[in-house]
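Page 37, continued from 36.
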């Protein structure tokens, strides 16, 4: 008959009398800490402030008004009327995800020769200089222009 011998393992007792005093509380505190952890994802706060600059440039030989429609910082649309060749307004602060919208057109139902209109949207983040984000430019005769941009 073959007997399988297993090694006899002998554990030595810890001789340090203070080790039990130190190790036991660490194990207890670790268990409490790990059991109370929730798996929350870290979501950094977004404290960025954005400002939107809407710009309309137009040119015509006729004495016409221009109508402008923008999306304001409270997500409502506002209308403006002007007569100069350039118009701009800055709104804000707005948050990330804001959908800026700008539409400009001449106040007439006729298609007139030598009538041009262009729009652009610029964005400033945390008081940095404004940066062009989008624009609707054309050198052809047209009576309206529109552009949109979402802050990402």
């Amino acid at each position: 008959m073959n007997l399988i011998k297993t090694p006899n393992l002998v554990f030595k007792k810890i001789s340090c009398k203070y080790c039990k005093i130190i190790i036991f509380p660490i194990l207890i505190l670790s268990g409490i800490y790990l059991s109370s952890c929730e798996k929350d994802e870290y979501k950094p706060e977004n404290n960025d402030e954005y400002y939107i600059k809407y710009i309309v440039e137009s040119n015509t030989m006729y004495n016409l008004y221009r109508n402008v429609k923008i999306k304001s910082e409270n997500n409502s649309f506002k209308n403006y009327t002007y007569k100069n060749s350039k118009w701009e307004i800055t709104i804000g602060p707005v948050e990330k995800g804001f959908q800026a919208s700008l539409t400009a057109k001449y106040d007439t139902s006729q298609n007139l020769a030598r009538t041009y209109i262009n729009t652009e949207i610029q964005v400033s983040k945390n008081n940095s200089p404004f940066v062009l984000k989008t624009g609707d430019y054309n050198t052809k005769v047209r009576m309206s222009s529109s552009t949109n941009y979402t802050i990402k």
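The chain has a mean pLDDT of 84. Flag for discussion at group meeting. The two ends are 79 Å apart (CA to CA).
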